[in-house]
Write a structure and sequence with these properties.
The protein is built from 15 helices and two strands. It is mainly alpha-helical. The protein has one domain. The radius of gyration is 18 Å and the shape is globular.
Length: 267
């Protein structure tokens, strides 16, 4: 087993730190012929939200593959997604960008310009493999395991990620310029590729964690709960099942409910 994967990503300077804002904007947009493709991919993601039967089918396939062990209701998906964003994704990202000296709002603009579809699907159930891969390569992840498990659901998805990461490292990827305007650490793609290859051989390989997650015990229960697809869906299944209860929960719950975390619910 290979468990000697580097466990954290140390902050280092990239184009994102020192290039002028107008250059970052131009690089994130990329060549004009590619803009139409970005718009099509975003439209495709948004259209998927109206296909409830397809979402149910995807969740059933995820359960059949053993990637999730229970299927949350549609309401639980909504409430769980809100919790994942407000308690985990946004605070952890904002903390990281502060440590990097990066403006959080401007960074989200760059991400949207690079690939708007990557920001339209926080749970990833409507995303195709290329959207998941682009999202993984676009920003340094707190924990890439959630997206890697989603990608593993698609035949050949993980292999395609490895290929595209190798292209990014070599500077030959078609989105090298636009991703380079966003990604925060120059060795992120190499470290991610090292982890993914080790994970392919041994699924118990510890995930590579972003520096502010690995170094801060306050994120331990959040990372354990939302860092993997399996644990995140278990949390979602603990969410309210009626509209009234869901509204009451969202209006009255202002801190992460530790009693619902993965750590509190492990046997």
């Amino acid at each position: 087993m290979e468990h000697d994967v580097i466990q954290k990503l140390e902050p280092m300077a990239t184009e994102r730190h020192h290039a002028p804002f107008y250059r970052l904007l131009a690089d994130a947009i990329g060549p004009l012929p590619g803009v139409a493709g970005k718009a099509r991919r975003l439209a495709a993601i948004l259209a998927e939200y109206g296909h409830g039967a397809e979402l149910d089918a995807r969740l059933a396939r995820l359960q059949a593959r053993g990637l999730i062990d229970a299927i949350p209701t549609r309401l639980q998906l909504v409430v769980g997604s809100i919790d994942m964003v407000r308690f985990w994704i946004s605070p952890a990202a904002a903390d990281y960008y502060r440590s990097q000296g990066i403006d959080f709002t401007f960074h989200q603009i760059l991400r949207f310009l690079d690939e708007p579809a990557s920001m339209a699907d926080p749970v990833g159930f409507f995303s195709d493999p290329d959207n998941i891969i682009g999202h993984l390569m676009q920003v340094v992840h707190a924990n890439p395991l959630y997206d890697l498990q989603l990608l593993d659901f698609h035949d050949g998805g993980v292999e395609s990620l490895c290929t595209q990461l190798a292209q990014m490292i070599a500077g030959t990827h078609p989105r090298s310029q636009s991703i380079g305007a966003i990604v925060e650490e120059p060795d992120y793609h190499q470290r991610l590729l090292t982890f993914v290859r080790a994970w392919q051989r041994d699924r118990s390989t510890p995930p590579v964690l972003r520096s502010n997650i690995a170094e801060n015990p306050a994120y331990r229960e959040l990372e354990a709960t939302f860092g993997s697809l399996t644990e995140a869906m278990r949390y979602f299944c603990r969410m309210p099942t009626t509209v009234a209860a869901a509204m009451r929960y969202l209006l009255t719950t202002h801190r992460f409910p530790s009693h619902l975390s993965a750590l509190a619910n492990r046997n």
